[in-house]
Design brief:
With about 280 residues, this protein is α/β, with parallel strands linked by helices. Helix content is about 40%, strand content about 15%. The chain is globular and about 55 Å long. The mean pLDDT is about 95.
């Protein structure tokens, strides 16, 4: 993975993290505490389809002296392709956003009920109650099903669960209800946020990013644990050509789950540019 350049002594931020309000391990307060321990100047909380942890993270960040970016990661799909849109500086009190996220929560629960039913038909029986308990206060998703399968001894690890059952071509896969990236972008902007395409990856056609930019997309996540040096360079060039913001982050979910918080080393300059785009002072 290519890391963005840091000047000597430069301050770092992490613009992509998750708490237990989606599929992360830590509470918002513990996430902020870890950011302080790692010496980060800024942190974006971007839970999947949830803003429930933002208020708690913001309160903890004031005490810790860390710049907290209220965010969300919206799940969407385009022609069968999963695309995630990050929303930075969204207004967590925006009625339209809150209403749509409540719909997402119910859609996710309905989807998990259907997945558990398919698993039972395949002989891989797990308790729905256990999956919901693993999700805790946050939105439930396939990683919680994978963990329940692991606990039941039905798979060797979470990746095995997705390979055998839960992946897009798996026998227990249930697609999400349709929600397009252009709808996600519009929702983020309606809530006064800045839209950024999350972890586009090495295989995504540039024409898709171009189309999203035409629909109003404001930025692209250049630095991510799943991006090689070549992928990061490619998206830097694309962002420059399309006039998009560059962002990056660890996509932190918990210790020992991919990179640790702040390990991508995103310079604070990117946060300052994000603030400018959002019209945020300070």
């Amino acid at each position: 993975m290519r890391r963005p350049p840091l000047v000597p002594g430069g301050r770092r931020v992490d613009l992509h993290t998750h708490s237990f309000f989606s599929d992360g391990v830590l509470s918002p307060e513990d996430l902020v505490a870890r950011a302080r321990l790692k010496g980060l100047a800024g942190l974006a909380l971007t839970d999947h389809d949830s803003i429930e942890g933002v208020e708690r993270a913001a309160a903890a960040a004031i005490v810790a002296g860390i710049d907290l970016v209220p965010g969300v990661e919206l799940s969407s799909s385009l022609d069968g392709l999963d695309l995630h849109i990050l929303g930075y500086y969204v207004n967590p009190d925006h009625p339209g956003l809150r209403e749509r996220l409540e719909e997402f929560k119910q859609e996710r629960r309905d989807r998990i009920v259907a997945i558990v039913g398919r698993l039972e038909a395949l002989g891989a029986v797990i308790a729905l109650e256990r999956v919901l308990a693993l999700a805790g206060p946050g939105v439930v998703g396939r990683p919680h099903v994978a963990q329940a399968l692991l606990e039941a001894g039905l798979v060797e690890h979470q990746e095995d669960a997705f390979r055998r059952f839960l992946g897009a071509h798996g026998p227990a896969f249930v697609p999400r209800p349709a929600f397009s990236p252009t709808e996600a972008i519009a929702l983020i902007h309606a809530a006064d946020g800045v839209s950024v395409l999350a972890h586009p990856g090495p295989q995504l056609a540039e024409s898709i990013v171009e189309g999203l930019a035409t629909a109003g997309l404001r930025g692209v996540e250049v630095w991510h644990p799943h991006h090689t040096s070549g992928t990061s360079r490619r998206y830097q060039a694309l962002a420059d050509r399309l006039g998009l913001l560059e962002t990056g982050g660890s996509d932190f979910h918990g210790e020992h789950r991919s990179l640790d918080l702040g390990d991508v080393g995103v310079p604070i300059l990117l946060l300052e540019r994000l603030k400018e785009a959002a019209g945020v002072s300070g």
